[in-house]
Design a protein that fits this description.
By secondary structure, this protein is of the alpha+beta class. Helices cover about 30% and strands about 40% of the residues. The chain has a six-stranded antiparallel sheet. It has a five-stranded mixed sheet with strand order 1-12-16-10-9. It is elongated, with a radius of gyration of 31 Å. It starts with a helix and ends in a 6-residue tail after the last strand.
Length: about 290
Protein backbone atom coordinates (compact mmCIF):
# COMPACT_ATOMS: atom_id res chain seq x y z
CA UNK A 1 0.00 0.00 0.00
CA UNK A 2 2.77 2.42 0.78
CA UNK A 3 4.44 1.83 -2.56
CA UNK A 4 1.21 2.42 -4.44
CA UNK A 5 0.55 5.70 -2.61
CA UNK A 6 4.08 6.96 -3.33
CA UNK A 7 3.67 6.16 -7.04
CA UNK A 8 0.41 8.06 -7.11
CA UNK A 9 1.94 11.07 -5.45
CA UNK A 10 4.83 11.09 -7.92
CA UNK A 11 2.44 10.90 -10.86
CA UNK A 12 0.38 13.80 -9.50
CA UNK A 13 3.50 15.91 -9.02
CA UNK A 14 4.62 15.40 -12.61
CA UNK A 15 1.20 16.54 -13.91
CA UNK A 16 1.44 19.75 -11.86
CA UNK A 17 4.79 20.62 -13.48
CA UNK A 18 3.39 20.01 -16.98
CA UNK A 19 0.42 22.33 -16.40
CA UNK A 20 2.67 25.06 -15.02
CA UNK A 21 4.91 24.85 -18.13
CA UNK A 22 1.94 25.25 -20.45
CA UNK A 23 0.68 28.26 -18.51
CA UNK A 24 4.13 29.87 -18.64
CA UNK A 25 4.31 29.30 -22.41
CA UNK A 26 0.87 30.86 -22.90
CA UNK A 27 1.83 33.87 -20.79
CA UNK A 28 5.02 34.35 -22.78
CA UNK A 29 3.10 34.17 -26.06
CA UNK A 30 0.56 36.68 -24.73
CA UNK A 31 3.34 39.02 -23.58
CA UNK A 32 5.13 38.84 -26.92
CA UNK A 33 1.82 39.46 -28.72
CA UNK A 34 1.13 42.52 -26.59
CA UNK A 35 4.61 43.91 -27.21
CA UNK A 36 4.34 43.31 -30.95
CA UNK A 37 0.89 44.91 -31.02
CA UNK A 38 2.16 48.01 -29.24
CA UNK A 39 5.12 48.23 -31.62
CA UNK A 40 2.87 47.74 -34.65
CA UNK A 41 0.19 50.21 -33.59
CA UNK A 42 2.32 52.92 -31.97
CA UNK A 43 5.93 52.85 -33.11
CA UNK A 44 5.69 51.57 -36.70
CA UNK A 45 3.49 54.49 -37.88
CA UNK A 46 5.94 56.93 -36.27
CA UNK A 47 8.91 55.25 -37.91
CA UNK A 48 7.17 55.19 -41.30
CA UNK A 49 6.12 58.83 -40.99
CA UNK A 50 9.73 59.75 -40.30
CA UNK A 51 10.91 57.72 -43.30
CA UNK A 52 8.41 59.43 -45.59
CA UNK A 53 9.39 62.83 -44.20
CA UNK A 54 13.04 62.09 -44.98
CA UNK A 55 12.01 60.95 -48.46
CA UNK A 56 10.24 64.29 -49.03
CA UNK A 57 13.43 66.09 -48.02
CA UNK A 58 15.35 63.95 -50.52
CA UNK A 59 12.83 64.72 -53.28
CA UNK A 60 13.07 68.44 -52.48
CA UNK A 61 16.85 68.32 -52.96
CA UNK A 62 16.53 66.27 -56.17
CA UNK A 63 13.92 68.61 -57.66
CA UNK A 64 16.13 71.59 -56.77
CA UNK A 65 19.03 69.87 -58.52
CA UNK A 66 16.84 69.26 -61.58
CA UNK A 67 15.91 72.96 -61.66
CA UNK A 68 19.59 73.90 -61.41
CA UNK A 69 20.47 71.60 -64.32
CA UNK A 70 17.70 73.07 -66.49
CA UNK A 71 18.76 76.62 -65.60
CA UNK A 72 22.36 75.75 -66.46
CA UNK A 73 21.34 74.35 -69.84
CA UNK A 74 19.36 77.52 -70.57
CA UNK A 75 22.28 79.79 -69.68
CA UNK A 76 25.00 77.84 -71.48
CA UNK A 77 22.75 76.73 -74.37
CA UNK A 78 24.59 73.42 -74.29
CA UNK A 79 22.96 70.69 -76.36
CA UNK A 80 24.56 67.98 -74.20
CA UNK A 81 21.76 66.02 -72.50
CA UNK A 82 21.73 65.82 -68.70
CA UNK A 83 20.05 63.05 -66.70
CA UNK A 84 18.80 63.81 -63.17
CA UNK A 85 17.67 61.11 -60.73
CA UNK A 86 14.41 61.30 -58.81
CA UNK A 87 13.38 58.88 -56.03
CA UNK A 88 9.67 58.29 -56.50
CA UNK A 89 8.74 56.60 -53.20
CA UNK A 90 9.91 54.80 -50.06
CA UNK A 91 9.67 51.08 -49.25
CA UNK A 92 7.89 49.37 -46.39
CA UNK A 93 9.64 48.04 -43.27
CA UNK A 94 10.63 44.34 -43.29
CA UNK A 95 8.94 41.89 -40.88
CA UNK A 96 6.22 44.39 -39.91
CA UNK A 97 2.94 45.41 -41.50
CA UNK A 98 3.53 48.74 -43.25
CA UNK A 99 2.60 50.45 -46.51
CA UNK A 100 5.10 51.77 -49.02
CA UNK A 101 4.86 55.29 -50.45
CA UNK A 102 4.52 55.95 -54.17
CA UNK A 103 5.16 58.92 -56.41
CA UNK A 104 4.42 60.09 -59.93
CA UNK A 105 6.44 62.44 -62.12
CA UNK A 106 5.05 63.87 -65.34
CA UNK A 107 5.28 66.71 -67.83
CA UNK A 108 2.06 68.73 -67.84
CA UNK A 109 0.79 70.67 -70.85
CA UNK A 110 -2.52 72.49 -70.70
CA UNK A 111 -3.56 75.16 -73.24
CA UNK A 112 -5.35 76.97 -70.41
CA UNK A 113 -2.02 77.71 -68.69
CA UNK A 114 -0.06 80.36 -70.57
CA UNK A 115 1.38 83.88 -70.62
CA UNK A 116 -0.30 86.45 -72.84
CA UNK A 117 1.03 89.84 -73.98
CA UNK A 118 -1.11 92.74 -75.13
CA UNK A 119 -0.22 94.20 -77.54
CA UNK A 120 1.44 91.08 -78.99
CA UNK A 121 5.09 91.43 -80.05
CA UNK A 122 5.76 91.64 -83.77
CA UNK A 123 7.49 88.24 -83.81
CA UNK A 124 4.68 86.65 -81.78
CA UNK A 125 1.40 87.51 -83.53
CA UNK A 126 -0.70 85.39 -81.18
CA UNK A 127 0.79 87.02 -78.09
CA UNK A 128 0.52 83.63 -76.35
CA UNK A 129 3.37 81.65 -74.76
CA UNK A 130 2.60 78.18 -73.33
CA UNK A 131 3.26 77.60 -69.62
CA UNK A 132 4.14 73.91 -69.22
CA UNK A 133 5.58 72.20 -66.14
CA UNK A 134 7.34 69.18 -64.66
CA UNK A 135 5.42 67.85 -61.67
CA UNK A 136 6.16 65.31 -58.96
CA UNK A 137 3.19 64.19 -56.85
CA UNK A 138 3.74 62.08 -53.72
CA UNK A 139 1.24 59.45 -52.59
CA UNK A 140 2.28 58.99 -48.96
CA UNK A 141 0.64 56.66 -46.47
CA UNK A 142 1.77 58.29 -43.20
CA UNK A 143 3.21 61.74 -44.01
CA UNK A 144 1.34 64.62 -45.67
CA UNK A 145 1.27 64.44 -49.48
CA UNK A 146 3.33 67.03 -51.33
CA UNK A 147 3.51 68.15 -54.94
CA UNK A 148 6.58 69.81 -56.47
CA UNK A 149 6.09 71.82 -59.67
CA UNK A 150 8.73 73.28 -61.97
CA UNK A 151 6.81 75.92 -63.93
CA UNK A 152 8.17 78.81 -65.94
CA UNK A 153 11.55 78.57 -64.24
CA UNK A 154 10.11 78.65 -60.70
CA UNK A 155 9.83 75.84 -58.15
CA UNK A 156 6.42 75.58 -56.48
CA UNK A 157 5.42 73.35 -53.54
CA UNK A 158 1.83 72.51 -52.70
CA UNK A 159 0.13 70.46 -49.97
CA UNK A 160 -3.51 69.32 -50.00
CA UNK A 161 -4.50 71.58 -47.10
CA UNK A 162 -2.57 74.71 -48.04
CA UNK A 163 -1.89 77.30 -50.73
CA UNK A 164 0.94 76.72 -53.19
CA UNK A 165 4.24 78.39 -52.27
CA UNK A 166 7.06 79.48 -54.58
CA UNK A 167 10.11 77.72 -53.13
CA UNK A 168 12.50 79.18 -55.74
CA UNK A 169 11.62 82.27 -57.78
CA UNK A 170 11.68 82.30 -61.59
CA UNK A 171 14.47 84.24 -63.27
CA UNK A 172 13.08 87.80 -63.35
CA UNK A 173 15.15 90.97 -63.21
CA UNK A 174 14.09 94.60 -63.54
CA UNK A 175 15.42 98.14 -64.01
CA UNK A 176 13.70 101.36 -63.02
CA UNK A 177 14.11 103.86 -65.88
CA UNK A 178 12.93 107.46 -66.13
CA UNK A 179 9.63 106.71 -67.90
CA UNK A 180 9.49 102.93 -67.86
CA UNK A 181 10.10 99.74 -65.92
CA UNK A 182 12.22 97.23 -67.85
CA UNK A 183 11.46 93.62 -66.95
CA UNK A 184 13.54 90.71 -68.22
CA UNK A 185 12.20 87.17 -67.84
CA UNK A 186 13.93 83.89 -68.64
CA UNK A 187 10.98 81.55 -69.10
CA UNK A 188 11.63 77.81 -69.23
CA UNK A 189 9.28 76.00 -71.60
CA UNK A 190 9.50 72.22 -71.16
CA UNK A 191 8.50 70.02 -74.11
CA UNK A 192 7.72 66.33 -73.37
CA UNK A 193 8.98 63.47 -75.52
CA UNK A 194 6.05 61.49 -76.97
CA UNK A 195 5.37 58.38 -74.91
CA UNK A 196 8.03 59.36 -72.35
CA UNK A 197 6.22 62.01 -70.34
CA UNK A 198 5.06 60.15 -67.20
CA UNK A 199 6.08 57.39 -64.81
CA UNK A 200 5.14 56.25 -61.31
CA UNK A 201 6.20 53.76 -58.67
CA UNK A 202 8.44 53.59 -55.61
CA UNK A 203 11.91 53.25 -57.12
CA UNK A 204 14.32 55.60 -58.82
CA UNK A 205 13.71 57.17 -62.22
CA UNK A 206 15.76 59.43 -64.46
CA UNK A 207 14.66 62.67 -66.08
CA UNK A 208 16.65 63.55 -69.18
CA UNK A 209 16.68 67.21 -70.23
CA UNK A 210 18.08 68.60 -73.46
CA UNK A 211 18.37 72.24 -74.55
CA UNK A 212 16.59 72.93 -77.83
CA UNK A 213 16.31 76.64 -78.65
CA UNK A 214 15.88 80.14 -77.33
CA UNK A 215 13.40 82.74 -78.60
CA UNK A 216 13.30 86.36 -77.42
CA UNK A 217 10.21 88.57 -77.52
CA UNK A 218 10.43 92.31 -76.72
CA UNK A 219 7.24 94.23 -76.11
CA UNK A 220 6.24 97.68 -74.87
CA UNK A 221 3.17 97.63 -72.65
CA UNK A 222 1.35 100.97 -72.69
CA UNK A 223 -1.82 101.86 -70.69
CA UNK A 224 -4.55 99.49 -71.83
CA UNK A 225 -2.07 96.67 -72.39
CA UNK A 226 -1.11 93.89 -70.01
CA UNK A 227 0.98 90.84 -69.16
CA UNK A 228 -1.20 87.99 -67.94
CA UNK A 229 -0.07 84.75 -66.33
CA UNK A 230 -2.68 82.00 -66.50
CA UNK A 231 -1.70 79.34 -64.00
CA UNK A 232 -3.14 76.91 -61.50
CA UNK A 233 -0.78 78.31 -58.86
CA UNK A 234 -1.91 81.94 -58.67
CA UNK A 235 -0.95 82.38 -55.01
CA UNK A 236 2.63 81.21 -55.56
CA UNK A 237 3.17 83.44 -58.60
CA UNK A 238 1.55 86.42 -56.88
CA UNK A 239 3.83 86.15 -53.84
CA UNK A 240 6.87 85.74 -56.09
CA UNK A 241 6.06 88.77 -58.27
CA UNK A 242 5.23 90.89 -55.23
CA UNK A 243 8.67 90.04 -53.88
CA UNK A 244 10.47 90.68 -57.17
CA UNK A 245 8.49 93.66 -58.50
CA UNK A 246 6.45 94.77 -55.50
CA UNK A 247 8.45 97.94 -54.90
CA UNK A 248 7.29 99.27 -58.28
CA UNK A 249 3.69 98.39 -57.46
CA UNK A 250 4.05 100.10 -54.09
CA UNK A 251 5.24 103.28 -55.82
CA UNK A 252 2.41 103.07 -58.36
CA UNK A 253 4.74 102.58 -61.34
CA UNK A 254 3.02 99.29 -62.24
CA UNK A 255 0.07 97.24 -61.00
CA UNK A 256 0.09 93.55 -60.00
CA UNK A 257 -3.45 92.24 -59.59
CA UNK A 258 -5.24 88.91 -59.42
CA UNK A 259 -8.30 88.55 -61.62
CA UNK A 260 -11.67 88.50 -59.79
CA UNK A 261 -12.19 84.90 -60.89
CA UNK A 262 -8.70 83.81 -59.84
CA UNK A 263 -7.99 82.72 -63.39
CA UNK A 264 -4.88 84.77 -64.01
CA UNK A 265 -2.39 87.24 -62.56
CA UNK A 266 -2.08 90.56 -64.39
CA UNK A 267 0.73 93.11 -64.65
CA UNK A 268 -0.30 96.48 -66.10
CA UNK A 269 1.36 99.91 -66.43
CA UNK A 270 0.81 102.51 -63.72
CA UNK A 271 2.53 105.84 -63.92
CA UNK A 272 5.24 104.23 -66.06
CA UNK A 273 4.94 101.95 -69.07
CA UNK A 274 6.54 98.50 -69.15
CA UNK A 275 9.25 97.23 -71.48
CA UNK A 276 9.32 93.45 -71.22
CA UNK A 277 11.99 91.16 -72.66
CA UNK A 278 10.81 87.58 -72.56
CA UNK A 279 13.39 84.88 -73.31
CA UNK A 280 11.62 81.58 -73.90
CA UNK A 281 13.99 78.64 -73.44
CA UNK A 282 12.77 75.38 -74.98
CA UNK A 283 13.91 72.30 -73.06
CA UNK A 284 13.07 68.78 -74.22
CA UNK A 285 12.20 66.46 -71.33
CA UNK A 286 12.13 62.68 -71.32
CA UNK A 287 11.12 60.60 -68.30
CA UNK A 288 12.38 57.03 -67.90
CA UNK A 289 14.87 54.85 -69.74
CA UNK A 290 15.17 54.21 -73.45
CA UNK A 291 16.34 57.60 -74.67
CA UNK A 292 14.70 58.83 -77.89
CA UNK A 293 15.80 62.48 -77.86
Amino acid sequence: MVVVEEMKRRTFGMQNKAVAGVIEALLMVALVSIVLSVVQLVYIPEVMEQRESEHMDLVSNQISTLKSMIDLQGVTKSTTPISSMLTLGSRELPYFISIKAFGEVSVKEDPGYKITLLPPPGNLPSGIIPLSSIQYAADNSYFVDQTYILEGGGLIVQQPDGDPVMRADPSISSVNNTNSISIKVDLTHVIPAPGKNITSGDGNCFIRTNYSSNKTYIDTIQPGGHIRIYTRYINAWNESLQGLLGIYALNGYINIDESPTGEYLEITPGTKYIVVQLNVIDIYVQIGQGWIL
